[in-house]
Every structure is written in C-alpha cells, then in structure tokens.
Amino acid sequence: MRTTPFARPTFALGLAATLLAGTAHADATLDKIRQRGKVSIGVLVNGGPFGSIDPATQQLVGWNPELARALAKGLGVEADLVQVQTATRVQFLQAGKVDLLIASMEYNADRGEILGHAPTPFFRVGGTAAVRKDSGITKWEDLRGKPVCVSQGSSFAKPLANDYGAQVQGFKSSSDSLLALKGGNCVAAVHDSTLIQPLLRSNPEWTQYSAPIATEVLPAPSVVWTRKGEADTIAAVDKVVQEWHRSGWLIATEKRVGIEPPNPLLPELQAKFKAAAN
Q1: pTM metric for this prediction
Q2: pLDDT at 87
Q3: Does the domain made of 126-219 have the CATH classification 3.90.226.10?
Q4: What is the 3-state secondary structure (H, E, C) of the chain?
Q5: What topology does CATH give the domain 30-122+223-277?
C-alpha cells in the first residue's frame, strides 16, 4: 500500500516521541522500586561469613545479606531478601522474581551478554579447589582427565574443561558438589575462594582436605546484577557502591563479618574513590 504524503509527518512525530520516551526512562524498574518502597534482592547463602541463616532468628546474615540491606538503604527503600541458588539465580532475575542480585556471582563476558550490572565491583573472587590432602594434586594441570565437581551454572566450568582438561560435573548447589567430593565422586570441588577457604579453615569435618593450589582460577570482580538495559537502576546502584568504597564501609563490614584474608581490592578502590572526591 502506498503511503500518502500526509501520513509521513505523523509517523515521524510518533517515532520521535517513542525515542524521546525511551531516552527519558531507560527502564521502569527503579520507578517500580521507589513506588512500592521496597527492592527485592536475590542473595546466595552458602554458609560461613558470606551468607548463612542465623539459627536463633532464622534471618539471613553475613556479607551478601549485609550488602543487600545496605543497598536498599542507599536507594531509600526497604529490603526484601530472597534466597537464591547458583543454578537458578539468573532465571530469578530475568523472570522478575527479584529486582537485583547480590549472589556471589562474578562478572564474565557471557553473563554480561544477557544481564546488566553496576560497573563498580564490591569484591574480587576466583575459584579455589578443595581436594583430599593425600590426593597429590598441587596445581590446576593435575586435574586433567579427572572428575571435578562444580555448581550448575558456575563460571569455573569452562576454564576447568578447556584450559585444564578436567571432566567437569555440575551439581545443583555447592553443598551437593562438596558432598560429592567427600563421597569420592570427584577429586576436587571448585568454588569461590570465599566459600572454600573459611570451610577448610574452621570446619572440623574438613580436616582431611586442603586447598593446595596457590592461584585462583578465573579471578573476577563481584558486582550487583540487573536485567539488561536498565540504565537508571544501574546508575543508582553504582552510586551506592561507590559510596561504600569512599566511606570505608566495605572494609569495615568485611572485618565485622569475619572475612579472611582481607580482599586487596577494597583498599585499592577506597583510595581511588576518596581521591576522586577531593
């Protein structure tokens, strides 16, 4: 059908209005958060200082929950913490079951293709291998051709298989993966160093296990995740995270919840943002 001359200006004006509206509101999530006065944040709770359930109160406590509550406060709203699993955390965010994720989920290019994130990291984490002390494993290359347990959806699966030739087995949760290691189903369980190190250091059930490989696999920044294209939400979240660094709140919280050893990224970023404020 031929377009009449009179239809063209109307179409052009409509298109311009649509583009301007998209520019004015890059996403609706931040508006919805403010309207309901609450932000829903998915948090991963695997035990230890990074996240656990207080047996007395049944409240989520530790690093991830602390950050989630502080983020809500920084946004000027209440916090609704939703416990998520490694295998389903991305689906929870994409399906709108949560607004944001603080779920021990480090940045990588694959995740960056499907999700948005606040660019300022709040931590840096790599993968550490827990093995039996009598395993003879001392370096990543020793895993070649051997079964290695990870959580489903773990970013460590690809480098373990491609770079070190491990036979990667995925489990629903890190707890299931670690149980498989203890059951002899794999020679190593590879998870965030923030999970493995406290477990081996403080849990008497793991005295026969160690983390002998000195380096971490795929060290990457921990970030707050959003849905793709939510520019307003990303900007608001990033402003809060930058203030955490500038004020020293992250360093104080790391110490208060008992994270050891201290993460070297935190003083680096505190110095950076304090200098930028001067």
Answers
A1: 0.74
A2: 84
A3: no
A4: CCCCCCHHHHHHHHHHHHHHHHHHCCCCHHHHHHHHCEEEEEEECCCCCCCEECCCCCCEECHHHHHHHHHHHHHCCEEEEEEECCCCHHHHHHCCCCCEEECCCECCHHHHHHEEECCCCCEEEEEEEEEECCCCCCCHHHHCCCEEEEECCCCCHHHHHHCCCCEEEEECCHHHHHHHHHCCCCCEEEEEHHHHHHHHHHCHHHCCEECCCCCCEEEEEECCEEECCCHHHHHHHHHHHHHHHHHCHHHHHHHHHCCCCCCCHHHHHHHHHHHHHC
A5: D-Maltodextrin-Binding Protein; domain 2 (3.40.190)
